[in-house]
Amino acid sequence: MSKRIIAFFLAAAALCVFPVRFPAQEKAGKEPSHAKCAHCQKEKFVSVQAKNGAGKPVPLCYECAMLPRCEYCQLPSETVSGGGDRLCRDCAKDCIKENAEAEKVLKDVRQVLSTKFKMTTKHKIIYELGTRRELNLEADGEHNELGWFDPKTIRNKPQYTIRILTGLPRDVFRSVGAHELAHDWMSEELPHLMDKPEIREGFAEFVAWSFSKAEGNKRMMEYTEGRTDDVYGGGFRKVSAMMGEAKTAPEWKKILLKEYPLKGKKNGR
Ligand SMILES: [Zn+2]
Ligand SMILES: [Zn+2]
Ligand SMILES: [Zn+2]
Question: Which of 36, 62, 140, 205 meets the CB 3.0–4.6 Å disulfide criterion with 236?
């Protein structure tokens, strides 16, 4: 066989294995040839390779499935946020890009944490949006930071700032806000744990996950559960396992204090 013929058969075989599923008709047991692509709305062969913000599978045609994807829900992306992330239509529609809006939403998240989980701090917090460059400069520059909790002492007075990446979809923004507010609470209630990265980030992820659960936000729960790195993902699993059935911040504090007592630290440090 000539190379051309082999290439033809390989291409034909590739088309055959291209996964074609029609979730709506699957139950009916029919084999339709076409369905509507959720992105371009054209009647075409479709496959399910993406989930929307609510975690529902979305059928896409071959061309649309090849487009760059939204950072947050895997749908084809048309825009790039101010923070440099690719966003799909749905996620771009409701993203946070004004400081005033960011402040309003974060105050609401702080209120929810206080009423639902008794996680409360009283001091003033400055809330603002930042670019990816600004956020990464503050961190080690190795991670793509979405948020930053920044406690400082200025003229002997503490000053707290929470900065979040501009242009995040609203539900992602709220979950990142809960994570940063967990740092704020920990820095006040359990300051000795702030220099243990696995516990600090694991606890903040656990709070963000609990918050997403309370909001019925499945995709952010899955996002947290799916993290694979040691500090955030490993920390989250470690802290979740520790917390068991405990549901409020005072109970979480008790459990953490039992595991990591304030006094009598190892090696006398
Ligand atoms: Zn399409
Ligand atoms: Zn999206
Ligand atoms: Zn953090």
Answer: 205
